[in-house]
Q: What sequence folds into this?
């Protein structure tokens, strides 16, 4: 009998704790759904950060030897209303990029190094002809994977960047939409 009474008290206690969360979730469910499908974004260009992945990186420009290193891809989308659609195709983009990189590995000097660049910087911060050619190659691969011309710029950052955290604010963009916001 004592055990039943303790379990009842525990259940009431849990309900008291969870009830405000359930009520608040019900009130703002429309806003949450709008955020999940990226309807809450402002108009114009937007930036998408994909999840970090391991990619083959050439040790030197003339070397055929590669090492797998973590990279984070950030893309510029023409219209922010299409961010959700593009994020839903993130696995296709990752597969396309991995295929392109295993065909021709990333050169270490192509990667953006966060330690060397501080403050607000444009995506075209240091684009040499070789980097522009690699950008064009990767943009073509990405746009073919998603079936359109939505992506206009790409920045491949060396290393892992947490999604939506403080590290993202140190990148060249004022706001970066992480694709992991979709559930």
A:
């Amino acid at each position: 009998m004592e055990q039943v009474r303790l379990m009842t008290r525990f259940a009431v206690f849990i309900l008291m704790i969870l009830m405000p969360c359930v009520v608040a979730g019900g009130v703002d469910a429309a806003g949450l759904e709008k955020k999940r499908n990226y309807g809450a974004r402002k108009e114009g260009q937007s930036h998408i950060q994909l999840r970090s992945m391991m990619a083959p990186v050439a040790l030197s420009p003339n070397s055929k030897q590669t090492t797998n290193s973590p990279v984070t891809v950030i893309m510029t989308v023409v219209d922010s209303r299409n961010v959700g659609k593009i994020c839903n195709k993130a696995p296709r983009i990752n597969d396309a990029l991995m295929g392109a990189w295993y065909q021709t590995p990333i050169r270490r000097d192509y990667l953006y190094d966060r330690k060397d660049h501080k403050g607000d910087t444009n995506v075209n911060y240091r684009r040499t002809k070789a980097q522009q050619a690699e950008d064009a190659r990767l943009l073509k691969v990405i746009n073919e994977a998603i079936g359109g011309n939505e992506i206009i710029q790409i920045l491949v950052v060396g290393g892992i960047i947490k999604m939506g955290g403080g590290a993202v604010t140190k990148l060249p963009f004022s706001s970066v939409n992480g694709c992991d916001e979709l559930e």
In short: The radius of gyration is 22 Å.
